[in-house]
């Protein structure tokens, strides 16, 4: 009565056979922790460059450079956000909690 539905194209199936679900969970957790740390670092830099853009005591060249850095950091944050989503998509599939270092 309880037939397990399997998908031969499931990417986790091969990983499970090779490493086990515990290893996969640890790997996802480490990846998410690294992405989170990268995002925090870039957010801190974004805050600093935003202060340059808004500051009255900076030269025109400093503000132009800061505007370019703000744009670059926004693009990097968007890429990290996409990577985070793609990493977390696998988390429910392994059926166990993912621990993220904060």
Give an overview of the whole structure.
This protein is mainly α. The protein has one domain (17-92). Helix content is 71%, strand content 0%. It has helices at 11-19, 21-54, 60-88. It is elongated, with a radius of gyration of 20 Å. The model has no long low-confidence stretch (mean pLDDT 75).
Radius of gyration: 20 Å
Mean pLDDT: 75
Total E-strand runs: 0
What distance separates the N and C termini? Answer: 43 Å
Count of discrete structural domains: 1
Number of helices: 3
For this entry, what is the oligomeric state of its chains? single chain
Please state the overall shape, judged from the principal axes of the Cα atoms.
Answer: elongated
Q: Please provide the ordered H/E string of secondary-structure elements.
A: HHH
Helix content: over 70%
Biggest β-sheet strands, sense, barrel: none
State the secondary-structure class. mainly alpha
Q: Regions with pLDDT < 50 over 5+ consecutive residues?
A: none
Strand-residue fraction? under 5%
List the helices and strands and how they pair.
Layout: H1 11-19, H2 21-54, H3 60-88
Helix pairs in contact: 2-3
């Amino acid at each position: 009565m309880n037939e397990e539905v399997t998908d031969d194209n499931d990417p986790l199936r091969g990983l499970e056979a090779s490493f086990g679900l515990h290893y996969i969970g640890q790997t996802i957790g480490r990846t998410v922790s690294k992405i989170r740390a990268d995002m925090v670092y870039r957010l801190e830099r974004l805050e600093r460059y935003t202060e340059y853009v808004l500051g009255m005591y900076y030269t025109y060249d400093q503000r132009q450079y800061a505007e370019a850095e703000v744009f670059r950091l926004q693009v990097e944050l968007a890429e990290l956000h996409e990577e985070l989503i793609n990493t977390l998509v696998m988390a429910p599939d392994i059926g166990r909690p993912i621990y993220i270092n904060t």
